[in-house]
Specification:
single chain, 371 residues, alpha+beta, five-stranded antiparallel β-sheet, 13 helices, globular
Length: 371
């Protein structure tokens, strides 16, 4: 009997707390491990905008220890603290929601922003090794005492074959915007992709979307394209991360006069001056950092994430936002017609922190068949 090109299963993950890191390898029952045993690669696809996966390369750098992954996630939570006055969480401004929906909608702007900041992904590929963890990171697993139920597709496969490649121009508005939906009315990448899926009679496959190599100051993610989130909260964080931290720090919200504007300017200048020296040493130059912290009344750990971001080359990424996203083409029935598989609120998004010189940004779109 000929081996099928793929094996697939949809698993349910139940977080135990608001931030939960779940090892999908341990959650897969014995018969699923047996089902995927003959496939060297696994694709994992989350259908949620505040719960996703680390890319395999980053997961390898962090190592298999759950605590190292947790520390990495907490670094973003310090930048986007729960309970800060996010626009996305001001329900009286959410005109797209009914009165009943406003009562039930979670206050989770911090989770969306941390997801983007960390470079979490809706769809990743890993080597198939049941002994190695595949961490599913849920940033918003509980709200008002209720637990969410998360769905994730697992697909086993041998290799992929690219059956289509095209370069797509994304028009950039003259007005400086930070986020552009790739499924919006102006640009809908999915319509031609869906046509290709039907044309090739693809039941299960993979869509990859990449920024062209010469595109700068931009990245890609899959998340909720909600107006207040992308036009208010995300914009502020992109244009001035330090100011964003200052404004949303719970400590400063209690005592907003504790950091006057000249102190903020001093902090920015000092950090930019010492960052190269600090990060070129084997360990952080704690004494100089502590001096600044003491002057301004901060805690040292609160600044570590900002230091890393100021030192990162903005030409290649903001936070850990990547230049590549995957989308699963899937049929929930074996050999049925496939479609691009996205969750209810998921949308591919182009994020930019500087306006390009041209009026377009170029993406490379590829359709892959599992083989």
């Amino acid at each position: 009997m000929e081996k099928p090109a793929t094996a697939a299963a949809c698993i349910t993950l139940i977080p135990q707390k608001r931030l939960d890191i779940i090892d999908v390898s341990q959650q897969m029952v014995e018969d699923l491990h047996a089902r995927f045993a003959g496939f060297p690669r696994l694709l994992c696809c989350s259908l949620h905008t505040t719960a996703g996966y680390l890319h395999e390369q980053l997961a390898t750098k962090l190592g298999p220890d759950r605590e190292s992954v947790s520390a990495y996630v907490r670094s973003a939570q310090r930048l986007f603290p729960e309970g800060a006055p996010y626009w996305h969480d001001q329900m009286h401004l959410r005109n797209e929601l009914s009165e009943e929906q406003r009562k039930q909608e979670p206050l989770n702007a911090d989770s969306h922003l941390a997801y983007i900041c960390l470079g979490l992904a809706n769809c990743v590929t890993y080597r198939n090794n049941p002994a190695a963890p595949i961490h599913f990171i849920d940033l918003d697993g509980k709200f008002n005492g209720s637990t969410r139920s998360r769905k994730s597709w697992i697909v086993g496969y041998d290799a992929t074959d690219c059956i289509h490649e095209s370069v797509v121009d994304i028009p950039i508005p003259k007005k400086h915007v930070q986020a552009i939906s790739l499924t919006g009315t102006a640009t809908n990448l999915l319509t031609p992709v869906e046509q290709l899926v039907r044309q090739h009679k693809l039941s299960r496959g993979l869509v990859t979307i990449d920024l062209e190599d010469n595109e700068k100051h931009a990245g890609l993610t899959v998340n909720e394209f909600e107006t207040l989130l992308v036009e208010k909260d995300l914009t502020t964080a992109l244009l001035d991360p330090l100011k964003y931290v200052v404004r949303n720090s719970p400590k400063l919200l209690r005592d907003p006069l504790s950091l006057p504007s000249r102190a903020q300017q001093f902090l920015t200048a000092e950090l930019k001056r010492i960052v190269p020296e600090v990060l070129n040493t084997a360990s952080r130059n704690v004494s100089r950092l502590e001096y600044i912290v003491e002057r301004l009344g901060f805690h040292l750990h609160f600044l570590e994430y900002i230091i890393d971001r100021l030192a990162a080359p903005s030409e290649t990424r903001w936070m850990n936002l990547g230049r590549h996203i995957n989308l699963l083409v899937n049929s929930e029935t074996e050999n049925g017609p496939g479609r691009v598989h996205l969750g209810t609120y998921q949308s591919p998004i182009l994020i930019q922190w500087r306006h390009p010189e041209q009026s377009v940004r170029r993406l490379v779109v590829r359709l892959h068949r599992f083989c």
